[in-house]
Amino acid sequence: MKIDLRSDTVTKPTKAMLEAMMQAKVGDDVFREDPTVNELESRIAKMFNKESALFFPSGTMANQTALKLLTNPGDQVICDKYAHICNYESGGASFNSGISCQLIDGHRGMFNADQVLNAINPDAYYYSKTSLVEIENTTNKGGGACWDFETILDIKNVCKQNRLGFHLDGARIWHALVAKNETTEQYGDAFDTISVCLSKGLGCPVGSLLVGDSEIMKQAIRIRKTFGGNMRQAGYLAAAGLYALDHNIARLSQDHLRAKEIGAALNNMGIIKSVEPIETNIVIFELHDVVDENEFTQKLAHKNIHIISMGSGKLRMVTHRDYTNNMHEYLMTELKKMV
Ligand SMILES: *Cc1c(COP(=O)(O)O)cnc(C)c1O
What we know:
42% helix
């Protein structure tokens, strides 16, 4: 039994999902003739109360397309210092859109409207033009933290008053919706564009979407093509997405519960210095300085428990669809032994 808690991207499609994929009606999506892709796009658009959605091969490409849509070369995007668009997209913001990131020193990947106001450049020709604010919900490097929706609305107002675009990296938005009992519609109303992932908590093999109103999304398909992201009979992948929307959202609360139980077990271990608050499916913790990080992860690996380091002494475990009850019981027993 291999227990893989490195990421929620390690899931494999279930039999039922594969069956849905096998049954998919497909066509050439470059001609916009794949009925299953079209169905997924219109379903996601409706869910978020937006006019348009586009299917992408990755969350990175969906985010990068949003940055390109909402900025011009030389502009600046305001985001948290932990932001995926700045840390984990291979410098794409500057490479693809010619923009720089104005980083906010937030708390667990989150910040407030005043911090945004302070980060906006004055309107003088020698500054770069601030044109976009980007946030992440849940925050990845911030440990799966969920934003307070009131804060999001305050930031939206700042964006409106200063004519800034507002993009949500919603790779794990499903987790926030379940944890906070929020709706897709309220998020759609708050943001210009939202990227969502099907291949994280929802258990699909591939796929992300970008949603927005038609005026903004008009150029999205051209940008996707420029990035090399057009696909042909992608309906097989879209079918997995449709299946996941029907079957794999409500169950996320189970991942959250298990993550909290893991956190409590870690908190009882003498060798562990601290565990960050757990709201969703990500557990980030630190070992005491005297404990060797490599030795600790090796010891777990010998028990066939796999986790990753986030750097600067932080370790991460992520619960997901393929982390079963048996695995959970085994992990809890092994952690207790390690005290
Ligand atoms: C995983 C992730 C993405 C997208 O990653 P891909 O591997 O390109 O699909 C974007 N933002 C956040 C916060 C993520 O965790």
